[in-house]
Prior knowledge:
Chain A has helices at 3-34, 41-59, 63-89, 95-118, 143-165, 167-177, 179-184, 189-214, 222-236, 241-261, 264-281, and strands spanning 133-136, 139-142. Chain A is mainly α and 289 residues long. Chain A has one domain: Orthogonal Bundle (ABC transporter involved in vitamin B12 uptake, BtuC), CATH 1.10.3470. Chain A has a two-stranded antiparallel ribbon with strand order 1-2. The longest helix of chain A is centred in the N-terminal third of the chain and has 32 residues, at 3-34. With 234 residues, chain C is α/β, with parallel strands linked by helices. Chain C folds into 2 domains: 2-76 and 154-231, 3-Layer(aba) Sandwich (Rossmann fold); 88-153, no CATH class. Chain C has a 6-stranded mixed β-sheet, with helices on both faces. In chain C, strands 2-1-4-5 form a 4-stranded antiparallel β-sheet, covered by helices on one side. The longest helix of chain C is centred in the C-terminal third of the chain and has 16 residues, at 167-182. Chains in contact: A-B, A-C. The A-B interface holds A 31, 37, 85, 88-89, 92-94, 96-98, 100-102, 104-113, 115-116, 223, 227, 230, 234, 263, 265-266, 268-269, 272-273, 275-276, 279-280, 283 and B 59, 61, 108-109, 111-112, 114-116, 118-120, 122-124, 126-127, 130-131, 133-134, 241, 245, 248-249, 252, 283-284, 286-287, 289-294, 297-298, 301. Residues 11, 16, 34, 36-42, 83 of chain C line the site of adenosine-5'-triphosphate.
Amino acid sequence: MTLSYIIESIISGILLGGIYAILSVGFGLTWGTMKVLNISHSVFAVLGAFVSYWLFVKLKVDPILSLPLIVIILFSSGAIIYKLVIRPVQRAKDVIMASMVATFGVAIVVENVMSYFWRPDPRILKPAYASSSIFLGEISISQGPLIGFIMAICAISLLYWFLNHTYIGKGVQATWQNPIGAALVGINQERVSLITFGLSIASAGAAGVAMALIYAFYPSVQSIWTLFVFLVTIVGGVGSVIGTGLAGLLIGSIIGICAAFLPFVWVNVLLFALLLVILLFKPEGLFGN
Amino acid sequence: MRDKTNGRYMKYGLFLIVMFMLFVFPVLKPPLFFLSLLFTAYMYVALAESWNLMGGYTGYISLGHIAFFSTGAYTTAVFMNRFGVSPFATALLGGFFAAVLAALVGYPVLRLKGAYFTISSLLLAVVMQLIFMNWDFVGSSVGLWYKLLPVSIEINRMIFYEVMLFLATAITLIVRWVEKSKFGAGLIAIREDEDVAKTMGINSPWLKMKAFILGAFFAGVIGGVYGYYIAYVHPEVTFNINTSLLILLMSFFGGCRTWVGPLFGAIVLSLVNQLIVTFIGAEISRILYGMLLVVVIIFMPDGVIHYIRGLFVHRKIRHGDSIL
Amino acid sequence: MLKVNKLYVEYDGVPALRDISLIVNEKEIVSVVGANGGGKTTLLRTISGLIKPTSGTIEFMGEEIHTLSPHEICMRRLIQVPEGRQLFPKMKVIDNLKMGAYLPEARKNLPQSLERVYKLFPIFKERTKQKAALLSGGEQQMLAISRALMSMPKLLMLDEPSEGLSPLFTDNVFETLKILKEQGMTILLVSQEVERSLELSDRAYVLENGQIIMEGKGGELLCNDKVREAYLGM
Lengths: 289, 324, 234
Ligand SMILES: Nc1ncnc2c1ncn2[C@@H]1O[C@H](COP(=O)(O)OP(=O)(O)OP(=O)(O)O)[C@@H](O)[C@H]1O
Ligand SMILES: [Mg+2]
């Protein structure tokens, strides 16, 4: 086992972690601000991956170019789901639980619609550049993960900018910090919720494209992605964009280091055991305040 | 007064008649398909009732029930495979191991609330699945096989049918009894408001623990029998997360605040599910399932049973009004 | 300007307000006083649209508003300083103020509104970057009032603005209200500082157990024996 192998492993772990972060950030956002625990989050990531895949295979549109379109499509899907499912559920007494069950239903529907129309086979998004690598001395970095990572960083930065530098974004934060106060300064909570949910789903879609550049995807992979979403969100602290970003990178590094020494399955056992421990002793997350 | 006792006798009578009919049903030599259909329905009744002890009464939604179920299945499989002991003899032991597991994880996990509890219970199942997948003693990713009973398939199905019917009945009756006991009242107080319950002198950690362990024990026993029924255990089959979700769905669908809810939900949904899977296809059936879940939670957040009762009560009140 | 007519409000079937009628005219200060649990907060929350009444109407500038949602009511510049302040604790002072000017109309006027607030409370000019949670209770109350002013209220409602404050800050609050009155602001004040509120007010209502049991000019009520006995301990 050479040093460059270990470094490569860590780098690819970190790249992966960045993508996990964008996959998770929207999930934490709806959980934190809207008290909606959206189990269907990752299913929309898979949907994003599929749309990107079809655009690439059928129409030869490069995944990077089709990304804005995917964001728009998924934002709209999110808005529709919000109107149809989330809005009614928000009237429930225990919003978190009711939303969990309802969005679980959504996840089942979307997953199986995808697997009905597109078959459950694994697919991978492979534009020409994704299979080549960059070399830094002896260390090689594959371009697929690198491009996915760059996409993820851009998406997170955009989201961060939106939340902290636009009025609506600040409205989202205000609603989260104090819903009554927010209502009394004239924030339209329904609209804020719709935009939050739409953005969350849109970011999931972007993450799905990035994931598809690295891993094979298929409709039921969403439940595995969901586990990683839980992992990153809870380590990072629910609803903190920066925390989620850091958690993604941290977990990525851990995956990278462990993967250099351990078989992959044990890496997962280790990670989820770690998550259990964090849940038990620091449920507010390592980077939450 | 007299009416009431008469009503109660009628209820018991009806119950006994229905049980007797279900009990003798296999003697009529129905197609095997019906026996497995009902076996599965009974199993879900038993699972949903046992899940409901925790998930329904206290409102601690667990997605880890499948971990206890699998513990039971693996116990009977290992004992049969390694030592040749019959699963019918070790199913209770499976329940016992599941209960021990529940006690061990329950101590830390039951301190968590709401979504945090739910996620950690899910993680328990996931971690166990990953471990079993790589643990050679329990067959890792190949699984373990049971030796079949040396009888014809008809007799085999009949035996399992009766065993599961017994389990479902017993567990439902026990859960019903718990619901009406002081223990049950404590659990329901926890769901209403755990802090208030504590100030009323309810020992909530202990009650939760008891409910969790009892539910796990039942799940373990059911799992032990189920493994034998399908004749093998495999991490991806026994630990299938969808089973956990299905159980939850059944309880929610029926209404998880009474013992009737999971019973009703499990029977209706497992029959509907099996029939659509058989005649239409797995994907469509799951799509319908998912939609059902969404619709139920939107329009009947307290479950079908409560919704129906609600209609009934309203009718009564309106009726009463007209008399006044 | 504000006209509440035969208002009934319930919490889960338990009545909290019964047959409340009340009027606030332009440029008036009107107080609502009464013991704890009388329903004062419920009244203001209902006017702001946070709670829907079971029956009765609320009119503001000739328009029925009781069916509108809170942000639509804000848009009509009927603004509340709520009980418990309800600030955004993790936001800076300046961001709390900016959130007050969230709606487009107020946003256009942001610099002038800030100017006005800084004139009233110069400390905020120096502390723009401080987190709201780190302000003292009195300062938080000032910030809550300032945030409401940022929304350019036509009618300002305050729910116990002096609750839990030291005498010094209480003086400050009432001083501020006096200044606002001189500037021509219309105010609906809920307070347990019965004497000072009545002194300041043009008119007042006494709310007990969800019902209005007395109303009149501020000075008149102040001389009323019952009021003196019940609220002023004389
Ligand atoms: N969210 C609620 N749910 C149920 N009942 C409530 C709720 N809020 C207030 N109440 C009840 O309504 C009544 C009026 O309460 P309200 O807060 O309006 O009184 P208040 O006059 O503002 O009292 P205080 O002087 O203590 O602020 C009280 O009996 C209270 O218990
Ligand atoms: Mg009050």
